[in-house]
Amino acid sequence: MARIYKHPTHSKVELPDIDLCTLLFGNLAQDDTVLHVEAANPHNSLTKAKQREVVERIAHGLRTHYAVGSQGPDRDVVTVISHGQILVPSLLYGVIAAGGVYSAASPSSTVDELARQIRAGKSRLVVCGSEHAATAAQAAAKLGIPRTSVLVLDSTAGKWSLKSLAGDVDALSPPSQRLPWERITDPARLKNSLIVILWSSGTTGLPKGVMLSHRNLVAETVITSIQSREWAMNEFMTQGDAYVPPPAYRTLAHLPISHIAGLWGYLVGPQYSGGTVHWMRRYHWADLLRYARQFQITIFYTVPSIYLRISKSPDVTDHFAHLVGAATGAAPMDGTLQKSANARLGGSGGGGGKEQLLGQTWGLSETTGAITAQPRGDPDDTGSIGAVLPGVELRIVDDGFRDVEPGQEGELLVRSPLVMNGYFDNPEATRAAFHGDWFCTGDIGVLRDGKFYVVDRKKELLKYKGLQVAPAELEGILFEHPKVREAAVIGLPDPSAGDLPRAYIVPVDKSDISAQEIQDYVSERVAPYKQLRGGVAFVDEIPKNAVGKFLRKDLRERAKKELGITSKL
């Protein structure tokens, strides 16, 4: 019998049969609530009422000039490449309102990468930010897409527009011309719809298009709100007999909007909560700190690599003093980093917030984001990914899909309305991703002392003489070294031993560290089979993708050149 883990009190959730736009604009926020603010120019902002108007104007422009949705929903794919700007959420909803499909491209895409994604998504319309106009134009030209079908989204104060590169179209229609979205209540349509395509990182091959429906995004929005709202009720509204309103929801958009963390975290989640998103154009460390303090950010989600910098940087003082909630995901974070980062947040960082803030979430693009989360008010600093969210079922299985016992490692499988409908135009990859009706995440996890932990990606685990070595474990140990700013571990092929762990280190000071010092440090803390037999190399930076995940394939290529390796790494 399968060993299935569920939320203890909300194993099933009644989801509303409603489309995403109707859900989000039906929130409790007043029409004059400011939802989006340009961090560099706070006077440039968007209220709920103004956003609804802009959404309907974009929908009208896309339908009128490009026939988006004219042949029915779920067909017309609009590829979007942009850094953060306040009109991006309106663009998302406008594409959906017109009946189109929003396909998010990484802002770091090259011309060839963008062209490949446009082709794979069967898109004939491209929207870009001003910084990506040249890239978008060249990618479109490669595919025979005319300049009139490449639109530039401009959120500059007083210049809001969605103009074609040819200069003949502004798809942001005048205020008098609007197209309201269709209210959808049919459960089958909601489940089988296609409104967003996110593209996997492609770390093990070409990126695959993750198909998300109204049902997926509505489910993620409703499910993730359950624990937060229960916590707020207990924390702020039951203090004696007096009503104590919760702190205002203020967050800082700095992660790429092409990733589920950015798309849901800035374009969807805050909208449902009636919170304010302060938009950075793109991530810069000094700007992140400045805006976090200036806008008194209360809710903060970022990746472990940024929390690592927060934990070690002398620049951080009271910048995060107003936080009442902080979370991380996208890559594993061990308990040591969790503790050291948390020490710089909220009240413990010199402000008036709570003492234990930082919790982990776990999820994928294929699960519409988080499927576990650390419950608010239930602090953890052991590196746990938190509890299974309401409406989610989880299993841990071996290579034969047999459920393992608590304490044993295995692949995490998920069943939930949060799981995608499959990969776009890729039935073979879709079949390979499922075992029956269970989605195979590719993450190795373990249940230990009643808590869930992610060990590493299945495809990134190393094998030394048949014994499993998790790069994330070694990286966690290396992060603790005071002379190490950042570290990533890969495996070198060895014909007799399998994989030899090799560390790439960004040192605090290159003149004050040695490879032998690092190897000795690790050997004192791990079993013999986990030692850095592949050596240590010092570098200026670790290559990462747009959301801070290490690009291990780039490090493997580097190792091949450094060591003259000709076999496949």
Describe the structure in your own words.
The chain is α/β, with parallel strands linked by helices. It folds into three domains: 165 residues, Rossmann fold, CATH 3.40.50.980; 243 residues, Rossmann fold; 103 residues, GMP Synthetase, Chain A, domain 3 (2-Layer Sandwich), CATH 3.30.300. Helices cover 28% and strands 24% of the residues. The longest helix is centred in the middle third of the chain and has 23 residues. About 1% of the residues have low confidence. Belongs to the ATP-dependent AMP-binding enzyme family.
Write the layout of secondary structure elements.
Layout lengths: L19 H6 L8 E5 L2 E7 H19 L10 E5 L6 H11 L2 E5 L5 H10 L4 E4 L4 H10 L7 E5 L6 E4 L22 H6 L3 E4 L9 E4 L1 H23 L13 E4 L6 H14 L2 E4 L5 H10 L4 E4 L1 H9 L12 E4 L6 H8 L15 E7 L4 E5 L13 E2 L4 E5 L12 E6 L6 E2 L3 H6 L1 E2 L2 E11 L2 E7 L4 E3 L2 E3 L1 H9 L4 E11 L3 E10 L7 H9 L12 E3 L13 H12 L6
Parallel strand pairs: 1-11, 3-4, 3-5, 4-8, 5-6, 10-11, 12-13, 13-14, 26-27
Antiparallel strand pairs: 1-2, 6-7, 8-9, 9-19, 14-15, 15-16, 17-18, 18-21, 20-21, 21-22, 23-24, 25-26
Number of E strands: 27
Radius of gyration: 24 Å
> What share of the residues does DSSP label as strand, in percent?
15-25%
Count of discrete structural domains: 3
**What is the name of the CATH topology of the largest domain?**
Rossmann fold
Task: Give the fraction of residues assigned to helices.
Answer: 25-40%
Q: Could you tell me how far the N terminus lies from the C terminus, measured between alpha carbons in angstroms?
A: 39 Å
Structure class: alpha/beta
Oligomer category: single chain
Task: Please state how the strands of the largest beta sheet are arranged side by side.
Answer: 7-6-5-3-4-8-9-19
